[in-house]
């Protein structure tokens, strides 16, 4: 309710700072010690699976992450050889 | 030719990351392709100061260890076309940095960037050592305060002995310049704070800039914006002047670039605060 009201106005920089920290720390705390290196491993696994079916370069995978308070998205772009099209999948 | 510039200080909390972000943004605003690298492994903060903390996927350590390609780890700034950030790892420790790894990444960056700004961690251990090791130039961030000046002196000694340029033994040296931050003209005039000349006399290096104590620095950090993008603020202006000098321009040194814009009441308040 109150956050709705404050969002209508331009938030103060202190409010911005608090919100940025809350989002970031929620992710950092929840990920714990296990997950830090999962992205390189995920990338390796994706490459391996795609390579079973197609001949792609190890440079061809691009992973983007966008975190926000209500939604986080992981975007994986795989550049396919000879076909000049990028396939984007959002998980 | 590309230049590697380390932003270092020895002491913590004097404004290394704020300065790295502001200098990086200032260089990019001038059209130089610039990357800022966070060397503070385990205590990642450059991403927050530059406002890209939600977009970190891979980091410097992933690149050094071959788990990611450099272009995957580089984050492109959303405000400035020529600005990139290479974040560090939040989960590893400084032992993940190796001399060979840092060299390989810097060599690859040198091919693409005009300026590579290395944001050093505090202290004089591995992270700080590797941040300065391959530098061509150094920005020594110092507050007009005894412990900061002492630590800067120690760091200057290391720049003159423990860097790749110094180890060549042919008289090459890292070009070190002083960036005096959190300076308060009024307190200095009252004798409560060392003057610019006092600090320069002790450290005996050229002066790159004087950044006045300014409320805009906390605001910029709150919002994740390099303070040099706030061109109206005294600190933002002072950083832009310093960047001009860094690229070789002659710009008059002003203790407080915002001073002439302040009204009578602001000055009165500034003096009593």
From TrEMBL, chain A:
GO terms for molecular function: identical protein binding. The keyword Magnesium does not apply. Signal peptide: none annotated. One of its GO terms (biological process) is regulation of division septum assembly. The keyword Cell division applies. Gene3D superfamilies: Cell division topological specificity factor MinE. Keywords: Cell cycle, Cell division. Belongs to the MinE family. Prevents the cell division inhibition by proteins MinC and MinD at internal division sites while permitting inhibition at polar sites. This ensures cell division at the proper site by restricting the formation of a division septum at the midpoint of the long axis of the cell. HAMAP family: MinE. This is Cell division topological specificity factor.
């Amino acid at each position: 309710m109150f956050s709705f009201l404050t969002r209508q106005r331009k938030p103060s920089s202190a409010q911005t700072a608090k919100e940025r920290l809350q989002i970031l720390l929620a992710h950092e705390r929840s990920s714990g010690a296990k997950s830090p290196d999962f992205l390189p491993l995920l990338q390796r696994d994706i490459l391996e699976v795609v390579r079973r079916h197609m001949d792609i370069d190890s440079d061809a995978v691009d992973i983007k992450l966008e975190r926000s308070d209500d939604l986080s998205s992981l975007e994986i772009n795989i550049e396919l050889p000879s076909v000049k099209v990028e396939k984007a999948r959002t998980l | 030719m590309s230049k590697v510039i380390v932003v270092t200080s020895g002491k913590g909390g004097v404004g290394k990351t704020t300065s790295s972000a502001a200098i990086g943004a200032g260089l990019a605003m001038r059209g130089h392709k610039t990357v800022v690298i966070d060397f503070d492994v385990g205590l990642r903060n450059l991403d927050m100061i530059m406002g890209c903390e939600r977009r970190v996927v891979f980091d410097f350590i992933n690149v050094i260890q071959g788990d990611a390609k450099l272009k995957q780890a580089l984050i492109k700034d959303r405000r400035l076309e020529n600005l990139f950030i290479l974040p560090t790892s939040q989960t590893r420790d400084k032992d993940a940095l190796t001399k060979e790894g840092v060299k390989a990444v810097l060599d690859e960056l040198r091919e693409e960037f005009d300026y590579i700004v290395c944001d050093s961690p505090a202290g004089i251990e591995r992270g700080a050592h590797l941040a300065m090791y391959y530098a061509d130039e150094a920005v020594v961030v110092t507050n007009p305060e005894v412990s900061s000046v002492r630590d800067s002196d120690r760091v200057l000694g290391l720049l003159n002995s423990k860097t790749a340029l110094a180890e060549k033994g042919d008289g090459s040296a890292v070009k070190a310049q002083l960036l005096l931050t959190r300076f308060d003209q009024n307190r200095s005039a009252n004798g409560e704070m060392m003057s610019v000349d006092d600090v320069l006399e002790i450290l005996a290096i050229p002066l790159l800039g004087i950044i006045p104590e300014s409320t805009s620095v906390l605001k910029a950090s709150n919002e994740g914006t390099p303070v040099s993008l706030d061109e109206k603020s005294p600190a933002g202006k002072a950083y832009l002047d310093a960047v001009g000098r860094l690229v070789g321009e002659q710009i008059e040194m002003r203790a407080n670039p915002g001073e002439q814009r302040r009204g009578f009441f602001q000055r009165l308040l500034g003096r009593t605060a």
